[in-house]
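Entry for adenosine-5'-diphosphate complex. Fields follow.
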Amino acid sequence: MNKTDAPMPEPRRSVAFIGSECYPFVKTGGLGDVMYALPRALTAQNCDVKVIIPRYKCIPWKYQEKMVYRGSFTMDLCADGRSYYVGIMEYVWDGVVYDFIDNEEFFSWGNPYTNLVDDIPKYCYFAKAALAALNFMDWIPDIIHCHDWQAGLVPIYLRTVFDGTPVASAKSILTIHNLRFQGIYDIPTIKYWSGLPDYLFDYAVLKQKHNDANMFKGGLTYADMITTVSRTYANEIQTPFYGEGLDDHLRYHSGKLCGIVNGIDVDQWNSETDKLLAVKYSIDDVLVGKPQNKLALQKKLGLEEDENKFVIGLISRLTDQKGLDLVNQIIPNLLDGNTQIVVLGTGDAQYEDSFRYYENANKGTVCACIMYDERLAHLIYAGSDALLVPSLFEPCGLTQLIAMRYGTIPIVRETGGLKDTVAPYNMYTNEGNGFSFDRYEPGLLWEAVIRAKTLYFTERESWDEMVIRDMEKDVSWDNSAEQYRALYMKLKP
Ligand code: ADP
Ligand code: GLC
């Protein structure tokens, strides 16, 4: 039976998603995608979902103007009892309700983040305001599903300050999208802004070494359940290398920790309907459609127009997480006259500059698009032959999933969700979805690219079969949304 014809599972569950970004309103990375796609997938699992995010000034006007005022109130926040305005602006779209927490003082700067000095007060306010808004709207969900450190204080507020109020009947889940960012600041500051009582600033909850408090850590202690976005990352973060200083804390709480792999929204990412491509294509005509997109991409970016070049794409935040030092080390070796490289990303100056350098030194062969551009991303996914994701760590990673959906072969490091979603090519059985390497070494990345290129140039039939396999692979949210629903049912039978 087709999934969409399947009967809705009973009973209905209500869920409030609380997080700091959500596509298409505001997105800096995969968290924004998940906050968009998972609620939509959950509505197909008989869940009622409300997404609560800040009303940042950077949200495009075309969305702001559609928001409807839902009410407002004032809320105590700081240790000295300072109170703040909380406005709720609502936007209902495709069965999902989006409630934007409005406060000019906190949300007028940044895209959406600025620096910890501003972001710590901002997300103390946001966590408390989100719960207060649920009480105010008298919308009491079964589950409060919190995302990353910015929502880290929610599970704590829920069981302390909000104890005895209607919203306290909800169970909480805290999902780790990226453990690198934890919301750490000195105890007096976080104590002041959160207004939380002294006893919570203890090692078991918010206290970190020295005089620091850690908002993510405290949330993990208080959440009824912790999830992260792949099974491998769930295991990895319990080790010192990947644990970002919280591995012992996570081992202690491992009984309530599990990994559920991300999917992508297969309507948003669909080569058959994608208006941003030069030519739309399906599994049936990918071998014709893809080269045409490649030529369009080369033309747009000023690369030599030749469909026989092997085009490697890289779409990423340019940070240490993404394995870019490995890429930088091997670029000169990759440029053999048959290969082109397209980078789309923004981030650390060192990577922005080095990719610009390679572009200047190799005009027509390397293109560094140092920008954030959703539209260009679509054409790169479609027009590249392979996509590079050699991350140092990767909780899940969405770009390899999007790549596969567009028939672009991922070349990944075997870590986190990359390991769970990309089966390495097996030349003996002709199985697998991409190419991978294990240790974090430039030589191993280089070898993986060489394996990919060898298959592309010498055994095109096997390559093309892998393209088709990747397009057939289920990268949708269906399966994982079912797992989240099962979790919700376990917490609230
Ligand atoms: P992360 O969340 O760690 O940044 P993911 O792979 O989970 O990594 O998600 C990245 C998302 O952001 C994908 O949707 C990807 O297409 C998008 N993305 C990253 N950089 C850019 C960019 N410069 N322009 C457009 N989209 C980008
Ligand atoms: C984080 C991770 C990425 C993951 C995304 C969505 O930003 O870095 O691996 O896919 O969150 O969960």
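NOTE: The domain at 11-263+478-491 is CATH 3.40.50.2000 (Rossmann fold).
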